[in-house]
Amino acid sequence: MAKEENKAQESELQSNYIRVLSHQLKSPISSIESLLNTISDGFTGEIPPKTQYFIEKAVNRATEAKTMISDLLDYELYSQNQPTPQEELDIVVLTYTLANRY
């Protein structure tokens, strides 16, 4: 009985750690993504095409990082037998995003 309680407690600690870590990672990445989008949208002035290209690549990488963090959280929910949140996807936007990533 003590082993089961210990295992449950360890599992809960791990889940909490993953949730906190995910939030701590997601927040600065979202800030970076937002700032890069501000620059990309021209709010800081005109941007040379080559610089624009690299900014867009950086935005894509930040988006990928946020997606990986969200996937980690989804996995954690799934491993705890909790329902994974569902979201609607626009297949055109998804295809465009994936095509531009590579």
Automatic annotation (TrEMBL):
Pfam families: HisKA. GO terms for molecular function: phosphorelay sensor kinase activity. Residues 13-81 form the Signal transduction histidine kinase dimerisation/phosphoacceptor domain. This is Signal transduction histidine kinase dimerisation/phosphoacceptor domain-containing protein. CDD domains: HisKA. It comes from candidate division KSB3 bacterium.
